[in-house]
Amino acid sequence: MLEVSMLAQRASRGKGAHVSGAQHGTGRDDSKGFGTGRSPSPGVRALRAALALAGLAGALLLIVATFTTIIQITVETTTRAVDYDAAQSGWNRHGPALIVLALLALWLLTAALRGARIAMTGLALTGLVALAIAVHWDRSHVHDTGSVGEVYTEATAGPGTGYYLETLGGALLLLSGSALLVLGGPVSVRGENADGRPVGGRRTEAE
């Protein structure tokens, strides 16, 4: 009888230890798994990549626009007027401003793709500045013949290729920055935000 009682006590202790271990393991798993998020879906990753390409294209367009004709003046059937410059490039009108904006946009885009929201906002604002230059600075002068019109009454002026490039470049930067801001920062496969904190704002027991 005594032997049977001892065996029953051992079995009861073993069962209790097993249950305790299982509960402890579950708690540990919950602690590790709490707040973990899923990695971005393929659709979100594809959209982020497209927005990155849009931002890159926008910056490159601003650089190209710097050396491309913004305002083209035509005298009758020719764009060449004797002793007068009938074409104004982005450099003639803005100096290195568009290049500076493009380089700034590239730097901000790199930071934005790492999840820096302030960089996403800065990227959108950079595009807005480029658009302001095109719309408020150049658009009001695209039909201004300037000194050429004073000599050649038949001279006409209109927007050149550079005007459309700088406008499109600014629009792409604005779109890229704004859309990345809406999507938010990237989430790692371990469920951490870009700053290393677990999704949901809570930390694990190990921390």
Describe this structure in words.
With 207 residues, the chain is mainly alpha-helical. It is elongated, with a radius of gyration of 32 Å. The C terminus is likely disordered.
Main sheet strand line-up: 2-1-3
- Residue windows where pLDDT falls under 50 for at least 5 positions: 18-37, 187-192, 198-207
Please state the structural category.
mainly alpha
Separate helix tally: 7
List the SSEs and their pairings.
Elements: H1 2-33, H2 42-66, E1 69-75, E2 87-89, H3 90-94, H4 97-113, H5 117-138, H6 146-151, E3 155-159, H7 161-183
Antiparallel strand pairs: 1-2, 1-3
Helix pairs in contact: 2-4, 2-7, 4-5, 4-7, 5-7
Briefly say what this structure is.
The protein has 207 residues and is mainly α. It has helices spanning 2-33, 42-66, 90-94, 97-113, 117-138, 146-151, 161-183, and strands at 69-75, 87-89, 155-159.
Which features characterize this protein?
7% strand, disordered C terminus, 3 strands, single chain, 207 residues, mainly alpha
